[in-house]
Amino acid sequence: SIFITNAYFIPDARIYRSLVKAAARGVNVSLILPGESDIPIVKYASRYLYKRYLKNGIRIFEYGESVLHAKTAVVDGIWSTVGSSNLDRRSFRKNLEVNVVALDQDFGEKMEKVFTEDLKKSSEVTLENFSRRSAVEFFLEWLCYRFRNVF
Q1: What is the mean pLDDT of residues 121-138?
Q2: Helix (H, G, I), strand (E, B), or coil: what is residue 110?
């Protein structure tokens, strides 16, 4: 399993391909992303890839309780990370970010429990309901994605 909660999720091609390959191998790849964002441009850019994720078996949930600012991941209930890094180019190349990485089953299980609790506060995005978005939303997603490396 790969469970990612991320406020500003615009992964580069390598991360995107890795997640798709994992899902193709039968790994449960699930993302909790913001339903509301304090930076709408980033949310639109992130949503541009939703259709690709969904078509490749990656599940997407949008957090609805408040503005999401978490940046966590847990893999197979053993490897975990918590910190300030988003999964975007800016965090990796420009920002001063710090994450804690833990290789610990007890901590990983706790991280999975938090992820499961956050799922209860989230709505699943399906290919069917995502395809119903307006042409204006699609255009905004497309446009914002083009400028993803600026912000």
Answers
A1: 96
A2: helix
Helix residue spans in 25-104 (DSSP H): 40-47, 50-55, 89-93
Retrieve residue 22's tokens.
């994992």
Instruction: Note the pLDDT tens digit of each residue in 139-151.
Output: 999 999 998 877 6
The pLDDT value recorded for residue 85 is 72
- Model confidence pTM above 0.85: yes
- 42 in Cβ contact with 77 (< 8 Å): no
Ranges of beta strands (E only) in 8-136 are: 29-34, 59-63, 71-75, 79-83, 99-103, 122-125
* Beta-strand relationship, 29-34 and 59-63: parallel
Dihedral over Cα of 70, 75, 76, 79: its sign: negative
Q: And the tokens for 133?
A: 């978005």
**Of all helices (H) and strands (E), which one includes residue 133?**
none
Give the whole-angstrom CA distance, residue 1 versus residue 28: 5
**Residue 32's beta-bridge partner residues?**
5, 61
As a residue count, the chain comes to: 151
The alpha carbon of 74 is separated from its chain's Cα centroid by a whole number of angstroms, namely 12
Question: Between residues 93 and 75, which one has the greater pLDDT?
Answer: 75
Q: Report CA 131 to chain centroid distance, whole Å.
A: 19
